[in-house]
Amino acid sequence: MARDIECTTPPQTPSRGQNAGKAKKCRGSRCLVLMAVCSGLICVLLLVFIVLQHFSITAERDLLKNYKDAVQVFNQTISRLQDTYSDLMTENDQLKYRFNYLNDELKNAYEQGFHWGSGWFFKSNDSKTWFQSRQYCRDRGADLVIINTEVKQSFLTSIISSSERLWIGLTDINQEGKMKWVDNSPLKQGFWSQGQPDDYIKNEDCVELVSSTPSLNNWNDISCSDTRKALCEK
């Protein structure tokens, strides 16, 4: 039998040049992968930056819009307040005019007088001493008022200003402690403030009506040389 003789080719060892080529190919592939990864990261970073910029711009735009809205509301409020102030000043001027008008009318009414019961009452515009005030009344056919009832006392107190102090026709100048009216009738019922009359420093002989105190307790004795307005009765 003939033997088949196998011809085997011994394994070939790669040459140094082939190994170097393969190494170059591997390094090139790695560089491409690295470049691709870097490019991807850059794209991601750019995308993140763009998104953040978008949110930032949107937030700034919203903030600017809110600021503009706030400024607009503020300006509208200022405008309304200015209009309100102008209206209030106009109303204030009208009220001042009305007050002055009514005050003049009141003064005229006092000067001209008013009826109550069977009496005619009026008040002076100027403050004078008790004697000068009495003369003012007498020059007009009247005299300082005589108050001898609670009803009359309450009425006269109610129709005069709350800040006024007026002479009435009561005095003890002729005899200390003996109060008499201008018609020489003695005082029977007084409407004195608390602690009055006190004849302070022995020089208070005339009587004023102080309207700011309770209506049935508002007489006060003071010096006849003090000045008050006159409350006259005719």
TrEMBL record:
Keyword Transmembrane: yes
Limits of the C-type lectin domain: 115-233
UniProt keyword terms in alphabetical order: Coiled coil, Disulfide bond, Lectin, Membrane, Transmembrane, Transmembrane helix
Regions that span the bilayer: 32-52
Coiled coil regions, renumbered to chain: 64-98
Pfam families assigned to the protein according to its UniProt record, in alphabetical order: Lectin_C
Disordered, as annotated region: 1-22
A GO molecular-function annotation: carbohydrate binding
PROSITE patterns: C_TYPE_LECTIN_1, C_TYPE_LECTIN_2
Protein name (record): C-type lectin domain-containing protein
Organism expressing this protein natively: Onychostoma macrolepis
